[in-house]
Amino acid sequence: MSRRKQIYEGKAKILYEGPEPGTLVQYFKDDATAFNAQKKATLDGKGALNNRISEYMMMRLGEIGIPTHFIKRLNMREQLIKKAEIIPLEVICRNVAAGTMSKRLGIDEGEKLPRSIVEFCLKRDDLGDPLIAEEHIHAFGWASQAELDEMIGMTLRINDFMQGLFSGVGIRLVDFKIEFGRVPLAEGHQIILADEISPDSCRLWDRDTDKKLDKDRFRRDLGEVTEAYQEVAMRLGILKPNPSNPPTLSVVSSDD
User: Fold this and answer.
1) Please, what's the b/e burial string for 147-186 (b: 16 or more CB within 10 A of its CB; e: otherwise)?
2) What is the DSSP string of 192-221?
3) In this predicted model, what pLDDT tens digit does every residue of 22-48 receive, in sequence order?
4) What range defines the domain where residue 94 resides?
């Protein structure tokens, strides 16, 4: 489809005006960033991999009744999505201590948490996406109590589903970050899952070896970043391995 007016550009994606009112085109870039864009690189093929992995995850979550912004994949790098008013919160669900939680609380990385923990960060790159409490959300009106309850409930359902999905392909879901948006209804609005679900937004470790299969390979200079993303895609059945050639993305469309 022809490129339309650019609406927004983030670190990993660009949003364009969609072909119909209430829609946008989400383009996945090859750019990789870490530490609030202090570290940057271009990783050939990362955008196409994240597009397909996120498509797969959004479709599977839709099958269990999670409302999402995903409509359909347009090509190897673009998705047609619902236009939503993004709630300015990053919702983080943690199953295993890692990253900033380990540093903040002095818990050894890799230690299983007593239960899944949901945290909130304010979506402000200029402030380093600071951790906030529910009281801040109420005080500043970023979301109502009903919206917050709905987001927490959906996050825990998403976590339960994804833990089972990834466990089935030998991957440990350590934690993940998601975002939500509001879409208008005839009366009021609906809260939907937005943004993406990919190795950029999840910590994924091999269940047996704890090999990192996510963006930490870039953050921590471990190398083989796109290869790790390819491995996730292959385990999920999105990539079709070919013994004589590098992995190639399946051409099966999201409409099948």
Assistant:
1) bbeebeebbeebbebbbebbeeeebbbbbbbbbbbbbeee
2) EEES--STTTEEEEETTT--B-STHHHHTT
3) 999 999 999 998 876 678 999 999 999
4) 87-206
What predicted TM-score, i.e. pTM, was given to this entire model? 0.91
Tell me, yes or no, whether 168 and 179 share the same domain. Answer: yes
Q: Which domain CATH number covers 152?
A: 3.30.470.20
Q: How far apart are CA 32 and CA 38, in angstroms?
A: 11
| DSSP annotation of 255 | T
For residue 20, give the CATH number of its domain.
3.30.200.20
Residues paired with 182 in a beta bridge: 85, 191
Give yes or no: residues 77 and 132 share one domain: no
Q: What's the CA gap between 117 and 96, in Å, rounded?
A: 9
The single residue listed with the structure tokens 């190897």 is 76
Same domain, 163 and 130: yes
pLDDT in tens, 128-169: 999 999 999 999 999 999 999 999 999 999 999 999 999 999
Does 202 lie in the same domain as 92?
A: yes
Whether 228 is in a domain gets the answer no
98-138 pLDDT tens trace: 999 999 999 999 999 999 999 999 999 999 999 999 999 99
